[in-house]
Amino acid sequence: MGDVILTMKDIDKSFPGVHALDHVNLELKRGEVHALMGENGAGKSTLMKVLTGIYKKDSGTITYEGKEIEFHNTREAQDAGIVIVHQELNMLGHLTVAQNIFIGREFKKGFGIDDKKMNEEAKKLFDRMHIDIDPREKMSHLTVGKQQMCEIAKAISHDAKVIIFDEPSAALTETEIDQLFKIIRDLREKNLGIIYISHRMDEIKVITDRITVMRDGQYVGTLITAQSSKNDIINMMVGRVIYEDPKTHSMVPEGAPVVLKVENLNAGKMVQNVSFELHKGEILGFSGLMGAGRTETARALFGADPKESGDIYINGEKVDIKSPLDAVKHGMGYLSEDRKQYGIVVQKSVAENTTMATMEEYMNGIFINKKKEAETAQSFVDQLATKTPSVDQLVVNLSGGNQQKVVIAKWLTRNSDILIFDEPTRGIDVGAKNEIYKLMNKLASEGKAIIMISSEMTEILRMSDRIVIMCEGKKTGELDIAEASQENIMNMATREIN
Question: What pLDDT is attached to residue 498?
Answer without folding.
Answer: 47
